[in-house]
UniProtKB/TrEMBL annotation:
Any matching Pfam family: EII-Sor
Domain of life: Bacteria
GO BP annotations listed: phosphoenolpyruvate-dependent sugar phosphotransferase system
Keywords: Cell membrane, Membrane, Phosphotransferase system, Sugar transport, Transmembrane, Transmembrane helix, Transport
Residues spanning the membrane: 39-68, 80-98, 110-134, 155-173, 193-214, 226-254
Topology of this chain in the membrane: Multi-pass membrane protein
GO cellular component terms, semicolon-separated: plasma membrane
UniProt subcellular location: Cell membrane
Name listed for the protein in its UniProt record: PTS sugar transporter subunit IIC
């Protein structure tokens, strides 16, 4: 599989929009376009293989399902994971002739995504550092009362940072990095030690993501029931991700209605007493 210049340019633009802090905004950019699951669909549309894109995106999303950035601390950059890691993973899977629906494909995607995500932290901090320059320009403009200059500081100058640390690296790596697949194919056999190591590491990474999520959402023993419910649906009933999400949505609505009823009862009880007291006063 060869990534064309047009495709690489699109990946670069999407990396800019998904960057943290995102040019597309926090909600649209970072938390939507920047998510591997969403990026897998978009990358799949660009390369013309939607099914493989979604499978690769889902495999990588499991690792970073609980990714947070407390205080600006970034362990992995989802911009690089989504728009460098996923295109290269698709190129590797198709170039090596691996079935995208197999465990080997998921392991390959997980390993490549993790490697690119770690390297992507350099891009993140590079962007943040250059944005500090624009911030100082903005403060000086405020001190001088030149508030019109703030439009350029907020909307124009940050594009310089994102072009240097998002667009150009993504363009070069996705275009040139795809050629590495041919080198891997000829020098590293699938049954060799290097590839077996890569697949082994890739198989362990999803467990890390699930463990982080488990630590965040489980506060008491009974929370494990809802946490494991989706795994039970998939393992024993053969329900896919979409079906599990729909079933989970049903239970979420039911739980929400129960909580609202529990909240409404004390309010109604308190309201009744208030009416009774008013009648007594009259």
């Amino acid at each position: 599989m060869t990534i064309t210049w047009i495709q690489a340019i699109l990946f670069g633009l999407l990396a800019c929009l998904a960057s943290m802090p995102g040019m597309g905004g926090t909600a649209i950019g970072n938390y939507t376009l920047g998510r591997p699951l969403v990026a897998g669909l978009i990358v799949g549309l660009i390369v013309g293989d939607v099914s493989t894109g979604i499978m690769v995106g889902a495999a990588i999303q499991v690792i970073y399902i609980a990714l947070v950035t407390p205080g600006g601390t970034v362990s992995a950059d989802v911009r690089a994971i989504s728009y460098i890691g996923i295109p290269l993973s698709i190129a590797a899977i198709k170039g090596l002739g691996i079935d995208p629906s197999t465990v080997e494909a998921a392991q390959m995607a997980a390993a490549l995504g993790a490697a690119v995500g770690t390297l992507g932290t350099v891009l993140f901090y590079g962007t943040a550092t250059m944005n500090l320059v624009w911030q100082h320009i903005g403060w000086k403009a405020v001190e001088k009362g030149d508030f019109k200059k703030l439009y350029a500081v907020d909307m124009i100058l940050p594009w310089v940072s994102h072009i240097l640390f998002s667009f150009i690296p993504t363009l070069i790596i996705t275009k040139m990095g795809a050629n590495m697949v041919d080198i891997i194919k000829t020098t590293l056999p699938m049954d060799g030690l290097a590839m077996k190591t890569l697949f082994t590491v890739g198989s362990l990474l999803p467990a890390v993501g699930i463990a982080i999520l488990l630590k965040q959402v489980v506060n008491k023993a009974t929370d494990m029931l809802t946490f494991l419910f989706g795994f039970i649906l998939a393992a024993f009933m053969g329900v896919n991700l979409i079906g599990s999400a729909i079933v989970g949505g049903f239970f979420a609505v039911i739980n929400y209605k129960i909580k609202m009823i529990q909240i409404a009862k004390p309010v109604a009880s308190g309201g009744g007493n208030a009416v009774y007291d008013d009648e007594e006063e009259i």
